Amino acid sequence: MPRGSASAREPLSRGRVLRAAIALADAEGIDAVSMRRLAEGLGVVPMALYKHVADKDDLLDGMVDTLIGDMPALQAPRPTQWRGAVRDTILGARAVVAAHPWARRAIETRTVRTPAVLGHMERLTQLFLGAGFSPDLTHHVMHLLGNRIWGFSPELFNDPGGAPSPTKRRTSGTPDPQDYPGILLIAADAQARRPGAVGCDEDFEFDFALGVILDGVARLHRSKWASDAARDGG
């Protein structure tokens, strides 16, 4: 196929470039995404891409924005149903991120609050405000939710690749399991509840944490919580 013939059939656009970049990242990982590889896949010269994306950072911002656009935007039918709408919106975001293994890393490394990023934050903010939450409580709830609004939560010492690193490094010694009876107890209990399972059930843990957070948020809302009173010890 001559270079540029695909472009002649379907004009190049920012949206088409971004979707092609997402497909490349899905297939080969985010590190495989380059202007050269993307141009080859689209059947154009690399310079043609710069009419639609300014640089690699703009490309990554656009890829993230495109995925955010795929996230559901739910409205609470009634103020009392805010929790279900928030939960479904966040779990919808999680489903989008889970479908693209590179997305979490890309979201975590973005530093620009694009209109798409702000739009997702605004939709969640309005769910709380529409339920009668004060701006003060809503502000702190958004901080509390943190990265969970994008469908993932921070994990301690979690290897996103899912495999141990082969690199050997110096340590202060080999841990003796008997020195950590609490961890052993938790591990044994988890293994008994999920025989044969490898690692934690991340979807369950995410949903559990989100439920606990929203339970606490609902309690604060009912008590008319305010940050100035909390600082004063009230």
From TrEMBL:
GO annotation terms (biological process): negative regulation of DNA-templated transcription
Transcription as UniProt keyword: yes
Organism: Intrasporangium oryzae NRRL B-24470
Keywords: DNA-binding, Transcription, Transcription regulation
An example Gene Ontology molecular-function term: transcription cis-regulatory region binding
Ranges annotated as DNA-binding: 34-53
PROSITE patterns: HTH_TETR_2
InterPro entries: Homeodomain-like_sf, HTH-type_TetR-like_transc_reg, HTH_TetR, Repressor_TetR_C, Tet_transcr_reg_TetR-rel_C_sf
Gene3D superfamilies: Homeodomain-like, Tetracycline Repressor, domain 2
Any matching Pfam family: TetR_C_1
SUPFAM superfamilies: Homeodomain-like, Tetracyclin repressor-like, C-terminal domain
Region (Disordered) location: 157-177
Annotated ranges, domain HTH tetR-type: 11-71
Name of the protein in question: TetR family transcriptional regulator
